[in-house]
Each structure stands twice: as C-alpha cells, then as structure tokens.
Amino acid sequence: MSFNLHQPPAYRYSGPIFDAHCHFSTPEATERMIRAGELYGVTRWVGICRVEEVPAFRERFGRRAAFTIWLDHRLPADAPGFVKTQLDIVRQTLEIGGRCIKFWYKPEYNQRSGLFFDHPRLDPVFRAIEEAGLPVLVHIADPDVWWRNRYSDPAKFEAKRFTYRQLTNTLERFSRLSVLVAHLGGWPENLPFLTDLLNRYPNCHLDTSGTKWIARELSAKPAEARDFIIRYADRLLFGSDLVAWDHADFEHHCSRYWVHRHLYERNERVPSPIEDPDADGPVQVVGLDLPDSVLQRLYLENARRFFRLE
Ligand SMILES: [Zn+2]
C-alpha cells in the first residue's frame, strides 16, 4: 500500500479538531506543522513552549495557537531559586493567557534531578497553579520496552508501576487540580491500570499523544482499546506530540495526523506509514471506528473544557 499523505481520505468527522499536545519551536517550523494539521482538519494547537515565546507565536498564528508553558527543568532542583523560578513562570503564564503548565517528570528527569512529581518542594508551585485555575500536563512514563533497555538499571531507575506513586500522590493531595497525563497516561500497554487510575482520580485526564506508541499499543488490542476510549470519552484528549523540529518536513507531520485519524475513525487495518523502532516488526494501524459522539469529545469538547478555550 502506498500513501499519499498530501491527500487525506474522506473522514467521518468533519468538525473542528484541537491538538491538545504538540510542541512549538521556531515560527517557520511551527508553521509547517500547522499547515499539515490544517490539511487533516486541525483548527487549534495547544503548543508547548516557553513563556517568553508566546507573543511571537500569537502574532503569527492568532487564535489557532494556545499555550502550555514549560516550567524550568534545566535548573538544578536544589538550586536556591528553584521554587521562585517556577512560581514566576506560573504568574507569567497567567498574565499572558497561557492555558496550562507542563511538568516533565519522566525517569530521565527523576534520575538527573532527584526530584519527583510528589516532592513537597513542589507544594507551593501546585498551590499557585491551583489558585490560578490552570491545569497541568505531565509526562510520567515511557514505553514498557524502554524499561527493558534504557531504564533497566534498578540502582538508577524505579520500576514503572512504582514510579506512578509520584502521580497518584499529587492527584490525591491536590484534588482540585486538573491533571492531563501525556501519552495515554504513559501506559497504553496496560489499559486495566489506566482504568483504575481514572476511576480513582476524577481530576485525572489522559491525552493520546505519541503517535507511534499509541498506534502500536491500541492496534494490538483494538476491541479493548475501543471499549476503553468509549468508556472514558469524557476524560481523553486528542494530542499528536508533534514537535516542530527544523528537520521535520511536511510529510512527517502529515503522517502523524494521518495515523491518528485512521486509528479513531476508520475501520480497516493498514500498514503504518511511520517506521517504529520500538516495535517488533512492521506495525499495522487498526481503525477503532469510534462513534461520532466520542470523536466529538476526543477531538474538541474535552480540550475546550480542560484548557478553557472558547
Ligand atoms: Zn510532548
């Protein structure tokens, strides 16, 4: 099968689509990502960027762009100004109309910084975010296969299941804080775990970002994946995790949107147009044929509500 990624097939859903998780970079590279998305029906991008970058993106992309703002993960966690720096970012985010705060607490960061998502040092930061009425986006975990290669040293890295206590402790302690957990919570391999997480924590939401990973894992168990998405249709937000790299061309961006829309809307099994180094072999993307009412929430309504976008 060959793909013409410049010509999307006819999709069932024809309403607006918000990409709840992507990364802005230079204006030119971001423009390329946005043009690809427009071809695939995306009308709004909640892009992750630094707070000082917002005015330039806003000027260029207008209402198409909304913003999730990075905290400073470069600063050593025990530096004297660590908390103040993060608090300043929260305040600036509010002033400039950013919609969400991004935490990057994956194993690599935990190991480098010694800081976890439930550390008491972050309490004033969470309190300020809660007070500001902003939600947060957090990346907690990576694919299971990464635990078998990159994170296999137990002296350096926690076990995957154990590392989730940093998320659940915070969900529990800051129960008014809306939390979006990236990459289907970081555990698309384990839908029973996510079921339990969503049942226990009403303030927890998941995005579907991370195209290769999500397509690989959901296609491996389509019936279970379909049931899960329908059941939690109010708590799931469509996201691509596209990064507007300078070297990412238009086709690269198209291929990600192509896979997402196929996965949610179509009903046939096709070879993925994306090479997946984490897979055992070539990946087949299985269309989950989700009901229209679910697509409407996944693509649009949940993001509108979560980020308070009019
Ligand atoms: Zn991301």
How would you portray this structure in words?
The chain is globular. It has a single domain, classed as Alpha-Beta Barrel (TIM Barrel), CATH 3.20.20.140. It contains 13 helices and 11 strands. It starts with 16 loop residues before the first strand and ends with a helix. The protein has 310 residues and is α/β, with parallel strands linked by helices.
Number of domains: 1
Q: At the third CATH level, what is the topology name?
A: TIM Barrel
Ligands in the model, by name, code or SMILES, are: zinc ion
Largest pleated sheet: 9 strands, parallel
CATH architecture: Alpha-Beta Barrel
Explain briefly what this protein structure is.
The chain has helices at 27-39, 54-61, 82-96, 107-113, 123-132, 144-148, 160-163, 165-173, 191-200, 211-219, 222-231, 250-265, 292-306; strands at residues 17-23, 42-49, 65-70, 100-104, 136-139, 179-181, 204-207, 236-237, 242-243, 269-271, 284-286. It is α/β, with parallel strands linked by helices.
Distinctive features:
single chain; 310 residues; alpha/beta; TIM Barrel; nine-stranded parallel sheet; two-stranded antiparallel sheet; 11 strands; binds zinc ion
